[in-house]
Amino acid sequence: MSVHCCCLLFVGIVQVTSLCIWGGRNVWEAAERTRTIDRGYKEAKEFSDAYTDLNNWLENAVKPFDETAHTLGKDPDKIKQDALQALLDWLCKVDLPLMKEGPVYGDLDTVIFFKEQQKNCEDEFNGRLSQANQVRKTAT
To answer: In terms of Cα–Cα distance, which of 39, 139, 124 is closest to 83?
Structure first.
């Protein structure tokens, strides 16, 4: 049996095209399968690493909740205080980014509809401002 290989030269770039038939088997196809298997192995390893990292992050994220649960026990008043404080902390954190004025993109009718909904929400919120102040006093 003989091995046949063909080399082509294109504008200074050597492109090797191998059509090597040896013993009735196509070596080119075997090499392609090997490359595909290597690529699949690499992607599986990346997925496994990402999964492991995510799992570790989740385990670390759950620890503070477990510690808080042990600290609070089953006392409803402590749980309410903690939940209210967490809510207030979150509201303070997102308050400034939500209040920023910026360009709005999209369909004009949809934008107008959402602006009207926003105005209605703000009116309702302002109407309930005394309740919000009461919650803040209770949390502190």
So the answer is: 139
Length in residues, the chain:
140
Helices 129-139 and 108-127, packing angle to 10 deg = 60
Enumerate the domain spans of the chain: 75-140
Kindly list the distances between the CA atom of residue 83 and the CA atoms of 78, 87, 94, 134, 137, in Å, as whole numbers in the listed order: 9, 6, 17, 15, 14
- The pLDDT tens digits for 87-113 are 888 888 877 777 677 666 677 888 888
Residue tagged 């929400």 (tokens): 121
pTM over 0.70: no
Looking up tokens 């082509």 gives: 8
